[in-house]
From TrEMBL:
The keyword Repeat does not apply. It comes from Agromyces flavus. Residues 13-439 form the Glycosyl hydrolase family 13 catalytic domain. One of its GO terms (biological process) is oligosaccharide catabolic process. GO terms for molecular function: alpha-1,4-glucosidase activity; alpha-amylase activity. Gene3D superfamilies: Glycosidases (3.20.20.80), Oligo-1,6-glucosidase, Domain 2 (3.90.400.10). Its EC number is 3.2.1.20. Transmembrane segments: none annotated. InterPro entries: GH (IPR017853), GH13_cat_dom (IPR006047), O16G_dom_2 (IPR045857). This is Alpha-glucosidase. Belongs to the glycosyl hydrolase 13 family.
Length: 562
């Protein structure tokens, strides 16, 4: 029997480095994850997605894989993985792992072999090696820039000690891009998919699913200045607290490395492979392209099951803009028979408890730090984040929750410069803070070392002292806490079958900062404006902030019995 569980699933993203550390070395691990799974089952989610835990030199926090079929010793062993998976399944949680097919680590044996084998070899043909331009070949093959800043090309030293060919890396120089026209690469990834499917995983989140195929001839390209770093739209603009009209940007459109048609053939191949397995294993695309009808190409019925809805993530806290993106999402994904997904935070963007209160434009991937203009008011940020989540979890489709958002964690803005580890920080010489601020280890128990992240004080990124107040044990069972709001919303989403429902706008939705819709027997009303509005009559099922006396205050979402 098929349940199509992925159409409605609430999926919790675990960032293994920062979730829970069993051995006390300051880096989270699989045993830590296993030990905390009951907490997640209790929260009311359906599945977990784990960012990479594979063998890796960790130049990009594990998105630089040296062995796709083994666990990095920092995170444990394959046995630890199997134990964690079994425990998740015992608790009724599905497990999705990250697949990183656009590039490997430069420590991957294939890349090492490619370096050794030299120009023109079968080994080099698995990556994108090219001769440089100019008399001495010292000019990169084209003008592409790395997502993390600087050139997307690095020159190698050949066996004779002379400067030689260049290789392409859309990300860090330690992340050489594969050549996906090469059958060796295709075959190897089929093997990798089977390896994890045979172990029992329920699916894959596919990294850079818009980037694997490059346009023939690798033509020059200069991206629009307002393009988000991963491609697609820029971060929604906000000026002086007033959200600007969201535009559908075409920043990624036309880039010879994003969203090339050839990627779809790969996913059709993978889908057929997954469908050989019982139990509805899924593929979820990380594809930063826009507009939404373009994203929907990734989830046509013979391709992936889900695609992240980054257009939603990038929409400002503004009723009209939200109505627009919700309609556009339901219509674009609906047109291909796929569920819409919803997401507000992940390990690449400023946490929404901070982002929604930024007052100056901040491009996706650039991050925020002590010297960033327009830093958020934390009280406003948290209030908006709670309201935004209460709205998101009432929408039909599948929703993603990033670890720590259920605690209301803000971005860690004040990380010391010397603690930062994101390659973006290094490649831009500190001009962009990058993504470390959303990756700080979680606080579990306020009064324990590392707030219970592990048994010692160690944490690979320092935890702000103020995070004691966000610790899970300070919020568990506490009425009005963010944790209890998430639990109630996830529970209500289930008991009212909201994820299977539909959005029926209640007019004049979108006007005056108010958004209102009916989904089944629930009336959802969000006030994104700065003034009180009348609260419709009815039993309050859920409220992101206190409501009383017929008033719905600013930055508040309520669910009422319709
Ligand atoms: C997207 C991942 O989410 C991000 O963390 C990573 O740096 C890039 N892809 C490169 O793999």
């Amino acid at each position: 029997m098929t349940t199509e569980w992925w159409r409605t699933a609430a999926i919790y993203q675990i960032y293994p480095r920062s979730f829970a550390d069993a051995n006390g070395d300051g880096m989270g691990d699989l045993a830590g994850i296993r030990s905390r799974l009951p907490e997640l089952a209790d929260l009311g989610i359906d599945a977990i997605w784990l960012s990479p835990f594979f063998t890796s030199p960790q130049k990009d926090a594990g998105y630089d894989v040296a062995d796709y079929c083994d666990v990095d010793p920092r995170f444990g062993t394959l046995d630890d993985f199997d134990d964690m998976l079994a425990e998740a399944h015992r608790l009724g949680l599905r497990v999705i792992v990250d697949l990183v097919p656009n590039h490997s680590s430069d420590r991957h044996p294939w890349f090492q072999e490619a370096l050794a084998a030299g120009p023109g070899s079968r080994e080099r043909a698995r990556y994108l090696f090219r001769d440089g331009k100019g008399d001495t070949g010292d000019i990169p093959p084209n003008n592409w820039e790395s997502v993390f800043g600087g050139s997307a090309w690095t020159r190698v030293t050949e066996a004779d000690g002379e400067p030689g060919q260049w290789y392409l890396h859309l990300f860090d120089s330690s992340q050489p891009d594969f050549d996906w026209t090469n059958e060796d690469v295709r075959e190897e990834f089929r093997r990798i998919l089977r390896f994890w499917l045979d172990r029992g995983v329920d699916g894959f989140r596919v990294d850079v699913a818009h980037g694997m195929v490059k346009a023939e001839g690798l033509p020059d390209w200069t991206p629009a200045a307002d393009g988000g770093s991963m491609g697609g739209a820029s971060h929604a603009l906000v000026e002086e607290g007033v959200p600007l009209e969201p535009e559908i940007h075409d920043a990624g459109d036309g880039a010879p490395y994003w969203g090339q048609d050839g990627v779809h053939e790969i996913y059709r191949d993978w889908r057929a492979l997954l469908d050989e397995y019982p139990g509805e294993r899924i593929l979820a695309a990380e594809a930063w392209v826009d507009p939404l009808p373009r994203v929907a190409k990734w989830v046509r019925s013979d391709e992936m099951h889900q695609a992240f809805n980054f257009a939603y993530l990038e929409t400002p806290w503004d009723a009209a803009a939200l109505r627009g993106v919700i309609d556009a999402s339901l219509s674009a994904f609906g047109a291909v028979g796929a569920p819409s997904t919803w997401v507000l935070s992940n390990h690449d963007v400023v946490r929404h408890a901070s982002r929604l209160a930024l007052t100056v434009e901040n491009l996706q991937g650039h991050g925020i730090g002590p010297r960033t203009p327009g830093l958020p008011d934390p009280v406003v940020g948290l209030r908006r984040a709670r309201a935004a989540t209460a709205l998101m979890l009432a929408l039909p489709g599948s929703a993603y929750v990033y670890q720590g958002e259920e605690l209301g964690l803000p971005e860690a803005i004040d990380l010391p410069d010397d603690a930062r580890q994101d390659p973006t920080w290094f490649r831009t010489h500190g001009e962009r803070y990058g993504r470390d601020g959303c990756r700080v280890p979680l606080p579990w128990e306020a009064d324990r070392p590392s707030f219970g992240f592990g048994p010692t004080d160690a944490a690979w990124l320092p935890q702000p002292a103020s995070w004691a107040d966000f610790a899970r044990d300070r919020q568990r069972g506490v009425e009005g806490s963010t944790l209890e709001l998430y639990r109630a919303a996830l529970g209500g989403r289930r008991s009212h079958a909201l994820a299977m429902g539909s959005v029926d706008w209640v007019e004049p939705s979108g006007a005056d900062g108010v958004l209102a819709f009916r989904n089944g027997d629930v009336l959802v009303v969000a006030n994104t404006g700065s003034a009180d509005v009348p609260l419709p009559a009815g039993e309050v099922l859920l409220a992101s902030a206190e409501v009383a006396d017929g008033v719905l205050p600013a930055d508040t979402t309520v669910w009422l019995r319709a």
